[in-house]
Amino acid sequence: MTVPGFILRNALRNKRRLVLTLLSVTLSLFLFTMLQTALREMTQPAQTEESSLRVLVRHKVSLGNALPLKYQTRIEHTPGVRTCTKFTWFGGIYKDQKDFFPQFAVDADKLVDVFTEAQFDPQEAAAFVKDRAGCIVGIKTMERFGWKVGDKITLQGTIWPCDPQLTIRGVYRGGIDQTNLFFHHNYMEELCKYHVCLMYWVRADSAAAVPILIRRIDETFANTDAETKTETERAFLLDFVSMLGNVKVLIGSICSVIIFTMILVSASTMSMAIRERAREIAILKAIGYDGQQLFSLILAESFSLAITGGFLGCFGAWFGTWALFQHINITTISNGLLKKFEVTPHIVVSGMLIAVVLGLVSCLVPAYTSIRTSVVAGLKELD
What we know:
There is one protein chain. By secondary structure, the chain is α+β, with helices and mostly antiparallel strands. It has two domains: 179 residues, no CATH class; 166 residues, no CATH class. Helix content is 53%, strand content 15%. It has 15 helices and twelve strands. The strands form two sheets. Strands 1, 3, 4, 5, 6, 7, 8, 9, 11 and 12 form a ten-stranded mixed sheet that branches. The protein has a two-stranded antiparallel ribbon with strand order 2-10. Helix 2 packs across helix 12 and helix 10 runs parallel beside helix 14. It is elongated, with a radius of gyration of 30 Å. The protein starts with a helix and ends with a helix. The mean pLDDT is 82.
């Protein structure tokens, strides 16, 4: 019998235990991969070269506090500003609460200049600007509801006391998020009788101008009734996630428990397997196998189990999410918290490295104990 055949035969000695242990490792590393992916998407928002030029101006106290409309003119005249648009979250309901998608009231004539990475049809963009009750929608939301240009939709206000009736005038593609709906801020003001704005989205002249621009805007409105907090788009998204609590610590704690549990389960499995073969190990010692050779045989069995589970768990998560989110919108089921859910090679490699460490650590104590046992004691073990 060859050495690989000997290792395989030992691993298959108790098939039920093998399958249960393999499933435990596979599901644990699958969960680890999914949690790490969710953590990455929440704490490392996607960024493009154009998004790095955008900064957001909001009330210093909280997102719920509004800013006066007169601020826009002063922001536009700040050195380093290319263009500025009102940007107010509407948060209405379309038919049912489960049909969630992001909706924003903006300055229609400035939208294209601020979100330059998105692709707008020039004719549709012009039609959107001309129609006070028009809107422009991301391609993913259009496909989700089966909408087409010219359709009329109604949003039921939840935050704002109005129900805008909108006509879809265009579709945009590309950019970080293709699920948004944009409509005229002036139309919302007219319906709600409110003349305030929750945020201003600003596009800077250059990346070098962003830090200076942030300081200038906040200094402009310092010591006023509505002081501002200006930050980059990335910083704003991270602040938004931080409102959920310390997500990094929470997910990190869960992942630590998963890894610790895997080690316990694998070590227990290897201990039982080695104890059952105490006589065989003693015979191998008697015919000339030294401690290093015996440890190599035990390590190979443990390592094979861990690597197989790691491969099934990590690559199963990668393929499963890829196949699943071809048909399901992650933004919808996460209520806009996640824009995408991509298992990266880095996360897969991290999971596989954990599997390697698991294979090594789980067999150390059982193998050491077995090797230290004398031949006579080993032969008597199962008598």
